[in-house]
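quick one, two chains, predict together pls
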Amino acid sequence: MKTNYLLPNRRRSLPRRALLAALVFLLLLFLLEAFAPVALFQIIRPVAEPLFRLRDILNSGMQSVGSFFVSKHKLAGENLALERRVENLESELLALQSVAEEEERLLAEWGRKVTKGGVLGRVLLKPYQSPYDTLLIDAGVREGAVVGARVVSRGIVLGEVAEVYTHSSKVKLYSSPGETLFAELLGSGLTLELKGKGAGNFSASLPSDVAVKVNDIAVIPQLTSLPLARVAAVESKPTESFKAIYLRSPVNIFELQWVEILLP
Amino acid sequence: MSSFWKRSGTDILLFLSIFLFPWWIPLALLIIFLFVFPFFAELLLFGAILDALYASGENFLSSHPFFIGFFALFLVSFWVKERVIYFQRS
């Protein structure tokens, strides 16, 4: 007789070889972690790097195929929007240059010296490819990277080096969900406790009567402060004593190609 | 095609997908193949590779989220396969 249900006595416990295989893997990984924590990464790195470069080539090829089908009208609109954006950025740059000159003059007056040094790193993995708001870059111990060194892109601070290998490093972005850090609002000097929200976004909470406006810049305070994010939105309700502030990094982390590791 | 070549081809495809595609594509493929093959222990190795590439943390649990997740899935898959009639027939 044909049955279309399972007989109760056919149920078996977990196969022994499955449990054994899983436990052997777990033990091996524990041992590897204890005695050679970066060994697995070092083994796969020679294979990974050429494949990452191949992926980048394939991605850029796909983009150029896509751009062939974009209409002229759309391109003209984009061009106009970009021209306006360049104009805005040029005026912002001018303002920043004057601030930088003023800062340099003040530092010289007070006898403080700023040492600038960094290591350039090619981004091998970035968010959407990696799940935890981490970057994998091709600069490691040999290139001078150290754990805790700040990582910037075009002057905007993004995160810190979390792990270093011989020729690679993992960077944990400050915007990783669950990360918290203290930043300062440029101008007012107000300290904010920023919470990472992923993909270059942050949130903070402040008393309702504190003045914060959109486009205010949050920096990591030090001798020459590092810009981190810009206030994108402020949400306040008359009935609540705190307001929510949402900040966004000006750097698009999904399009990152190069970063600089600031040497301490 | 013999089962050996099928299995090897799948492993190579999965290995390449880890490096060529965003993380969620190999993750989805690995979970599918876990139920396609009766004993897909490679899943644990791929989990360790994904952790080596993406995860960073201070302790074993936070630095191996993929491996731990796959470890649990690997064991649970046998329980599921025993109880779902589709796997009994195949």
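Chain B has a mean pLDDT of 86.
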